[in-house]
Design brief:
The protein is α/β, with parallel strands linked by helices and 509 residues long. The protein is built from 14 helices and 20 strands. The protein has 2 domains: 183 residues, Leucine Aminopeptidase, subunit E, domain 1 (3-Layer(aba) Sandwich), CATH 3.40.220; 303 residues, 3-Layer(aba) Sandwich (Aminopeptidase), CATH 3.40.630.10. An 8-stranded mixed beta sheet has the order 8-9-11-10-14-18-15-16, with helices on both faces. Helix 2 packs parallel to helix 3, helix 4 runs antiparallel to helix 9 and helix 9 packs across helix 14. The chain is elongated.
Length: 509
Amino acid sequence: MTTVSVSDRAAHDLKADALVLGTVAGERSAALAAGHGLPSDAERHLSAQLAALHATGKAEEVLTVAAVPGVAASRVVLTGLGSAADGAGVGDEVLRRAAGAAVRSLKNAAKVVVALPSEDVAAVAAVAEGAALGAYRYAGVRGPGKDTKDKAAKGKAADEGVSAVTVVTGQAKDKAVKAAATRAAVLADAKAYARDLVNTPPNLLFPQSFADSVKERSSAGKAKVTVKVLDEKALEKGGFGGIVGVGQGSVRPPRIVTLTWAPAKATHSVALVGKGITFDSGGLCIKPPASMLSMKSDMAGAAAVAATVFAAAQLGLPVAVTGYLCLAENMPSGSAQRPGDVVTMRNGTTVEVIDTDAEGRMVLGDGICLAAESAPDAIVDIATLTGAQMVALGARVAGIMANDDTFRDRVRAAADTAGETAWPMPLPEDLRPQLESSVADLSHKGERWGGMLTAGLFLGEFVTEGTPWAHVDIAGPSFNEGSPWGYTPKGGTGFGVGTLLSLVEGYAG
């Protein structure tokens, strides 16, 4: 876990492996962002370097300069903030990404000082979060003595990554600023856990090993999170036909894991339901081979839920939070579910299976039923649910649907606060007839067009009337198949953790 602290000392006096400063776009070349507090010789040196390197100051441009006179850190990392137009200052997400891009670029740097312009608590929080998130590295699965560059084999010290971030701010003694630094470290640790789960190869992460990971993290945590696991026998006995059907083709049976943070004086309760398909082959409706390579990430919703519950507990939020991880492996075999099968869900609804590659809504339907039985104040499910989400919104924007416009807007506001881009989507009633079945209560899939929306309509069938519910489709932003950007690495992104945590914090007042 990367530690995060704040300091009101001059940035150039702090000993570190790297000092991060901001640059802004100028008429001819980039310039240092205001408020850096550098001595004149350091300022002149860096300004000359910016000109010589033809720096632009554009957002996320990162340059490194070594041995800057008057600076205690061994190198200075200059990260672009773009144009600070009409004196309005730099946006929180710009700061978050700039800090993340700078820290992500570092090698062989354990201690980092970040001094970006931050005028209020929200800006300090954004800088701290971006830096801590940018420090993430996935260790991978490697042999003894190996690291990503095989340095150990060459007799060189392995790069352990950034372990400590210090954010420079004149408000370092403010309690709210200190709390923001603490929260940033907790959030980054939670997102790192979610990212690690998503990045883990599918032969190592399957329903039971996912459950074991959650139990291990619960046992190691300082805050009390209760974990309960329903195995395949309990699921069959409990009438969870949706998840049992999805998992019946695999030799690794399904699980529903319940995580509960229940503080004594909680005045509100929130239920979070996550899709956890640890590998999605498509079942008998098998996917093309190229489409399977990233399907280890089909459990990103469950990863986000687990990480959020632990973060809420670690922060001691006075809100009861229960996470439901709907874990299954969708595989083809002689025992696999068939198109045309009819299963009975947890609430007694019968569902005709149309396409075994539309399995996520089936496991979520059971999870939502279970969550509704506890009568929470609100339910949010989060899932890598549909390719239609990516067609509509691309790879970086999540879709939010809900049975209540006010609650949908509340989830959207939480996403905005977290810097996780999401867009409100409708649940049109005129699409509902597509879910009619001639042999069951529901057909589990509609037509191709509007597939994200009909998936949302299907899930809404399992929500108790009167309970605010939102569905967040993260098929695109949960996994980055392209190059890293900002504080977002290649692979698992941890998308959704920030949104869910901000939503829970909203209930804490």
